[in-house]
Amino acid sequence: PGEPRQSLAIRLTPKEKRIISLIRQGYSNSDICRGLRLSDNTIRWHMKNIYKKTGAADRSALSRMYFQTPE
After folding, report:
1. At 37, is the secondary structure helix, strand, or coil?
2. Which residue from 57, 59, 67, 58 is spatially nearest to 8, judged by alpha carbons?
3. Above 50 in pLDDT, residue 3?
4. pTM check: above 0.85
5. HEC states along 18-63?
């Protein structure tokens, strides 16, 4: 169980939300680096923060959690 989408959106930065959107579309970290013109280390740093803020264990859990509809 994750937090409702609205609650997560408040805590995530615009860049983190963009990265989650790209992950949901199937982009790899390398693809995200090229698309956002960021280094691999920067993407890893953002991913670490995203996982910490959301409590997600991996990319698929993150997608399910972020796009969950509140009941």
Report:
1. coil
2. 67
3. no
4. no
5. HHHHHHHCCCCHHHHHHHHCCCHHHHHHHHHHHHHHHCCCCHHHHH
